[in-house]
Design a protein that fits this description.
With 89 residues, the chain is mainly beta. Strands 1-2-3-4 form a four-stranded parallel beta sheet, with no helix packed on it. Helix content is 4%, strand content 13%. The protein has one domain. The protein has one helix and four strands; from the N terminus they run H-E-E-E-E.
């Protein structure tokens, strides 16, 4: 889990975020109103979440990696900007 102080900070210019193998069980912080509006590349591979929030708010997201997310059973609504989705195991 990320520290609360980090989650309170907006990251308006962040374009790429690699959270691979961070032992995350949730990623709701990614869809906060102040959040990650310019995020284009998101790597969530090898984490432990069973579900994900809708990523529709991430309107510039083009690449999402969910490789080896073995507990994940359902993929949420995704933004129209998404061009590459990796869900391999």
């Amino acid at each position: 889990m990320l520290p609360e102080s980090l989650l309170d900070c907006p990251f308006p210019k962040l374009k790429s975020l690699d959270l691979q193998n961070c032992n995350l069980s949730e990623v709701d912080f990614l869809v906060t109103p102040n959040g990650f509006h310019n995020l284009q590349i998101l790597n969530l591979a090898e984490n432990k979440f069973a579900s994900l929030p809708s990523f529709v708010q991430l309107s510039k997201l083009s690449n999402l990696n969910l490789t080896k997310c073995e507990l994940l059973r359902e993929i949420p609504e995704l933004p129209q900007s998404l061009r590459h989705l990796d869900v391999s195991d």
